[in-house]
Amino acid sequence: MLLLYCSFPWRLNGVCGVEGKSVSVTEGDSVTLKLALAEIQSDDLIMWRFGPEDFLLAKISRKRETFNGPDGRFRDRLKLDNQTASLTITNSRISDSGLYTVSSRTKGDTPLRTFNLTVYARLPVPAISNFSSSSSSVEYCSVMCSVVNVSAVSLSWYKGNSVLSSISASDLSISLSLPLKIDCLDDSYSCVINNIISNQITQLNNTDLCQPCSVCNCCCGATEAGIRLALSAVVGVATVAVLVNDIRSRRFQQRRERID
Fold first, then answer.
1. How far apart are CA 117 and CA 97, in angstroms?
2. pLDDT for 22
C-alpha cells in the first residue's frame, strides 16, 4: 500500500500533493531518506530522482533494484530498502546536497514525496593563539580564536554557558577570527564553532597564553599593592624630611636674629 501525502498540497514541477522534508547531515555520514511505503506491490515500480533535472537515480520493484547516478558520483554509495523503498546514501558528500523526488509508476509517475538534503562540511577544531598584550597599571591577556575555510557557521567565545561575543559566516567559504581580552585565566572560557547540526569546542586552558587567576590574584595583586605601599612610604618620608628641614631652618634664623 502506498501512502500519498496530500494534507497540505502545493505545486512542485507542476504536480500537486507533494510533501517536502528538509534533511541535514554532516559530510561523511550516512543518511536515509525514508519513504512511508508499507510494502512494494508486485506491479509497482518506485523511482528516485535527483536534482532540478530530475535525473533518474535509482528504481526498485519487487523483483529487482537498479542504481544510476549523474557522472557516477553516487557509485557504490546507494542502498534501497526492499520493503519500504527508502533510499540510503552512504559516505555523504557536499555535492549530494539537493532535491530528491520519489515517484510511483502505478500513480502515473506522480511524486510521492520530496527531500531537500543539505550536506554540511565537517567542522574544524577552533585554534586559539596569542593576539596581543598591553599593560598600563594592569596587565591583560588577549587571545584570538580562528577557523579557516568554513561556511554557514557561527564562532563564539563563552564564559561558562554565557556568550561573550560571536561572529557568523555566510554560505561562502571564508576564514573567521574572534578576539578575546580577559584579566586572567580560569577554566570557564571556551571557543565554539557550530552549525545547525554539530559543533566543535576548544577550551582556553593554555597557561603559556594567559596567567591563571589564582596566580594573578595571589602574586600580581600583592605585587601591585606592595608597589603602591612602597610609593606611599617614600612620599611620606620625603614629606617628613621637608618639614623637619623647614623647622630647623626657622630655628637657625631665629637664633641669628637674637645674636644680631
1. 5
2. 92
User: Is 130-210 a domain of CATH 2.60.40?
Assistant: yes
Residues 6+ apart with CB under 8 A from 193: 123, 124, 126, 147, 150, 153, 154, 155, 156, 176, 199, 200
Residue 250 CA to its chain's centroid (Å): 76
pLDDT recorded at residue 258: 59
Q: Are 104 and 44 in contact (CB under 8 A)?
A: yes
The top-level CATH class assigned to 11-120 is mainly beta
The model carries a pTM of 0.66
Longest dimension (CA), the chain: 140
Domains 11-120 and 130-210 share a fold: yes
pLDDT tens, residue by residue, 30-68: 999 988 666 666 677 888 999 888 888 988 876 677 776
Closest to 74 measured CA to CA, from 61, 60, 56, 86: 56
Give tens-digit pLDDT for 216-241.
554 454 445 554 555 554 444 455 45
- Residues 156 and 195: their CA atoms lie apart, in Å, by 12
